[in-house]
Structures are given as C-alpha cells and as structure tokens.
C-alpha cells in the first residue's frame, strides 16, 4: 500500500514535539513538506525530521505537493483559512485547537468539509488520555449514578516558555491568537467535559480577565491570562472550569467529577491518574498513564487516529461539528464575561 502524503502547516513547538514525531513513527505516512511563515524556520525543522520540501506559504505548498492529508498547526488566526484551502485542495485536515477564532469561521470549516467530502478532525488530544477514556466508560455505565457536579482545571505558567515564537510570542496578541488562556487551555477542558459527560453545556457564566502577563515593553497583554467559568449541562449538572497562564510551579491539568455514589479524580495525583472515592468510604486507585506537560510530551495518539480514519474511510469522532460545539461554549464564556450575564447556548 502506498503511503499517505502528509504536509504540515506551521513549524512551531507542537509540530516539533508532537505532529512530526508521531507522523514519522506512523508507517503509513510520508511527510512530504512543511511550511512556516518564515522559510528559515521551515528549513531547520525539515532538517531535524528529514522532510524533503519546505515552503513559506501554504497555498503554494498545497498546489505543488497535492497532499492527501494536512496538519494545520499555525497561529490561531490562520486555522480557518489554512483548513479551508487544504480541504478545497483535496486534502483531509487535522486542525489544532482552538478550531478557529470566530463562530462564522468554524461554520465555514464544517461546511467546506461537507462540500469537499474530506475529513476534518480537531486535535483535542485530551480525549486520548487513558484515564479520561476509562472515566467516560465508568460515567456512562451508570455505576456511580448521575453526575451532579465537577471541577476541571488547566493551568500553567504561560506559553512564552513553550512557543517557538520568541521573545514576543503571537500567543499574547489578540490579532493572531484571538483568545488567551481560555482559548489555549480552557478549550481543552470544555471539549474534555463534553466527552466525559456525553452531553452538551446549555448555560455559561464566566470571568475572563487579564491579571498579570505583560509584553516585553511592560503593558498588560491584550488577551486573557485567567478564566473561571460556571457551566450547566442539559441534564442539570453544574461545575467550574478554570484556565490560567499564571499558575507558578507545576501544571494543574486535573478534573474531579462528583456523582451520586462517588467521585472520580483524574490526573490530580502524581502516581494515580484516576482515583475513585465511593460514597461508602472505599477507594480504588488506577495507574493508567501520565498527563503530557509542556516539559514532558508523551505520544498523544492524535496522528494515528487521523491517519486511521483516512485509511479506513471512517469519519473522525472529533469532527469539525464536534469542534464547533466546543467552540460555542468558549464563545459563550467570553460573552458572559463581557456582558456580566449568564449566557444560554443553543444547538
Ligand atoms: N493540542 C495541544 O495540546 C496544543 C499544544 C500547543 C499548541 N497547540 C496549537 O498549535 C498551534 C501552534 O502552536 P505552537 O505551540 O506550535 O506555536 P509556536 O509559537 O511554537 O509556533 C508557531 C508557528 O506558526 C508558524 N507560522 C506562523 N505564521 C505562519 C504562516 N503564515 N504560515 C505557516 N505557518 C506559520 C511558524 O512556523 C511558527 O513557528 C496553535 O494553534 C496552538 O493553539 C496545540
């Protein structure tokens, strides 16, 4: 069987730490080209991973390479344009989170995937963590009863130590990032909670604010560095979701789900990725896997899933439609923060 020709748009940290290593490890993939806004950057990444061709603009790359599949891992403001052009060029697309910067763009991406008949998958990698998968099974089995409440958090010290765009990273500029910690980290947890609970959020109330991150010149950045949200699901469960770029020391990437007959703690303990505390006092400890951190990248499984969907002609579960539902909650949280009101989310 001939290999799938894969091209990657964006040569930053996520491409170097995740997409290229995972693509190179997949025997059904041939990485034919990489593209960066800056050709020197693309050349150095191509050299590192033995990629034959480099481009400074993705339209030329799509036209010349005619890839079967494309990864979009460029700054957020390019996600919609690059995805739509890649779909129209006949490629299946794996697009990084956050899916896009506006609701209209998310919709255009979904529509273009439908029109072209190509797959669009959004890289919500938290759905692949072993403890998240196990917790979802337990919740859906009903053994702990109804989910009543939850708290979920993703916080670390900020993207400036991670981004390859230094010293003044695009993550800190609204015209390129659109969102700060909420779109960077909060979006992971919204998608994760939708996955774990198996239902949609219907109401959101949020504070989304900038407290401490500054540009090298000294002014506060123009995107948020902290967000605290209260969310309600269709069945009435309520919980909090926190995203932060100002947590000193180690990352917090944990979730607790409180059900009628016990609680499930995910990635809240350095050793046990899942702990179940039953209402009768018993506890169950699971050592399943460890959560990726910026410093410790483990295989995400996202690339293998994307390639497998293409090879087996199976639509990806984390489709554009799924990405859009997650983004609706992000937009609702921003609307709530701006208006000071609880926002209803319609589907
Ligand atoms: N799923 C995850 O856990 C995860 C983690 C980190 C980043 N991301 C997402 O991946 C995307 C990239 O983030 P990153 O951390 O690699 O950022 P980064 O700052 O390290 O790199 C950004 C890269 O974008 C590329 N770029 C800039 N302008 C371009 C253009 N016009 N055409 C093509 N490429 C261009 C450059 O190659 C640059 O190196 C972002 O959307 C981010 O939210 C996802």
UniProtKB/TrEMBL annotation:
Query: Residue ranges of the GFO/IDH/MocA-like oxidoreductase domain?
Result: 133-264
Query: Where do the Gfo/Idh/MocA-like oxidoreductase N-terminal domain residues begin and end?
Result: 5-124
**Superkingdom to which the source organism belongs:** Bacteria
Keyword Oxidoreductase tagged: yes
One Pfam family hit: GFO_IDH_MocA
Q: Which UniProt keywords apply?
A: Oxidoreductase
**Annotated SUPFAM superfamilies:** Glyceraldehyde-3-phosphate dehydrogenase-like, C-terminal domain (SSF55347), NAD(P)-binding Rossmann-fold domains (SSF51735)
Entry-linked InterPro entries = Gfo/Idh/MocA-like_OxRdtase_N, Gfo/Idh/MocA_oxidrdct_glycsds, GFO_IDH_MocA-like_dom, NAD(P)-bd_dom_sf
> By what name is this protein known?
Gfo/Idh/MocA family oxidoreductase
- Protein's organism: Caldicellulosiruptor morganii
Per the UniProt record, the lineage of the source organism begins with: Bacteria, Bacillati, Bacillota, Bacillota incertae sedis, Caldicellulosiruptorales
